[in-house]
Amino acid sequence: MTECSLGVVQRRALALLFLAIAASLAAIAVYSALAGGRALVIAAAAAGLALWMGDLARKAWP
What we know:
This protein has 2 helices and no strands. With 62 residues, the protein is mainly α. The model has no long low-confidence stretch (mean pLDDT 92). Keywords: Membrane, Transmembrane, Transmembrane helix.
């Protein structure tokens, strides 16, 4: 495996990690929003973090 292809593999792995974190945060946001009440604050925060992690995953994909 060459140096260049190792970097591509690492970037894909990082992108998949960010994608998994984003999906988990999105699920937390949905469940918190369904709970309502004070959990809406958690839903908003989790949704913002999910968007941010999704964007990082998009940028990390080679």
